[in-house]
Design goal:
The protein has 313 residues and is α/β, with parallel strands linked by helices. The protein folds into two domains: 2-163, 3-Layer(aba) Sandwich (Rossmann fold), CATH 3.40.50.620; 190-311, Beta Barrel (Elongation Factor Tu (Ef-tu), domain 3). The chain is built from ten helices and 14 strands. It has helices spanning 31-47, 60-64, 76-85, 98-101, 105-116, 138-148, 167-175, 179-186, 202-206, 291-311, and strands at 2-6, 19-23, 50-57, 90-95, 119-125, 151-155, 159-160, 163-164, 191-195, 211-214, 223-231, 236-245, 257-262, 273-283. The strands form three sheets. It has a six-stranded parallel beta sheet, with helices on both faces. A six-stranded antiparallel beta sheet has the order 9-14-11-12-13-10. Strand 11 (223-231) and strand 12 form a beta hairpin. Helix 7 runs antiparallel to helix 8 (179-186). The chain starts with a strand and ends with a helix.
């Protein structure tokens, strides 16, 4: 899949470039998103158009209300990997800033959809809104499609247990530690990925060395978990115990961190890319009275995670 970035689509691609397009944040790429991508791929193959996705960075709510923005389910890299798995040809990551926020709805259609992408067919949700102050709705888009001559389709909701599958429902499940419910909504087990960074080496001092991944945004879950870890370069899958949180015993007001202790690993992981799949929540994060108490808690966590793997093969 080709990925482009910028404030505008770069001249619609090659001369005569046309595409079928869908638009969205696609945070987490859950079952509802995947159904939309599958429909997009099928229709563009039928129409013999390039299959394109338009997504945004940052999330518009992070631009307008950063303090109140929802936790991210996936990093941009993870989101793009999941979109590519659906068979999309091209994704453009549109920079969401003041210019785009102020763009009138009709200009968005003209400048982004028609001239930018050369859209010949568009798939959106029935509740899709666009343009400054979200003034554009599906009815306005229908009128624009008739005027500009591109096809338009509204995607039906994907339902689970009588409710619409959504990123907010996934966040609610993860915040509650209900990994099974999150997996049902996502269509896969929840995972986080990133590159291992140098830390304070405290885990090594305590006898439990960890691979640390810095979380630059608030994570959707917190606590101690039994996990499986995939090393991207080798596809090896290892087992371990992980902590997602702010390490209250160690430092006040620390940035969120994903720390993973692997049970059968002794090599150097610095700079390597890991994918951490969360299998079972063991407990919430706690603050302990000193490092000895913390070491004892980590030992109990490791034993509990090993028991989980014994029970579950």
């Amino acid at each position: 899949m080709q990925v482009t970035h910028g404030t505008v689509m770069p001249e619609g691609g090659p001369a005569g470039f046309t595409c079928g397009l869908t638009i969205g944040n696609f945070d987490g790429v859950h079952r509802g998103h995947r159904a939309m991508l599958d429909r997009l791929v099928a229709k563009t193959r039928e129409l013999k158009l390039a299959c394109c996705v338009l997504t945004f960075e940052p999330h518009p709510r992070e631009f307008f209300t950063p303090a109140a923005a929802p936790a991210r389910l996936s990093r941009l890299r993870e989101k793009l990997e999941l979109i590519a798995e659906a068979g999309v040809d091209r994704t453009h990551v549109l920079r969401f800033g003041a210019r785009l926020a102020a763009m009138a709805a009709d200009r968005f259609v003209e400048d982004v959809l028609v001239r930018g992408f050369g859209a010949r067919w568009l798939l959106v949700g029935r509740d899709f809104r666009y343009g400054a102050k979200r003034m554009g709705d599906f009815a306005a888009l229908q009128a624009a499609a008739e005027k500009r001559g591109f096809g338009l389709e509204a995607m039906s909701d994907v339902m689970e247990a009588g409710q619409r599958v959504s990123s907010s429902r996934v966040r609610t499940a993860l915040a509650a530690g209900d990994l099974a419910a999150a997996a049902q909504l996502l269509g896969r087990g929840y995972s986080m990925s990133g590159r291992v960074a140098h830390g304070e080496k405290l885990g090594r001092t305590l006898g439990f060395p960890t691979a640390n991944i810095v979380l630059r945004r608030r994570p959707p879950l917190a606590g101690i978990f039994a996990v499986e870890v995939e090393l991207e370069e080798t596809q090896a899958v290892l087992r371990g115990v992980a902590s997602v949180g702010r390490r209250p015993t160690v430092k006040a007001d620390a940035a969120p961190l994903l720390e993973v202790h692997l049970f059968d690993w002794s090599g150097d992981l610095y700079g390597r890319h890991l994918r951490v799949k969360f299998l079972q929540k063991l407990r919430d994060e706690e603050k302990y009275d000193g490092l000895d108490a913390l070491r004892a808690a980590i030992q109990r966590d490791a034993e509990q995670a090993k028991d989980y793997f014994k029970r579950n093969g």
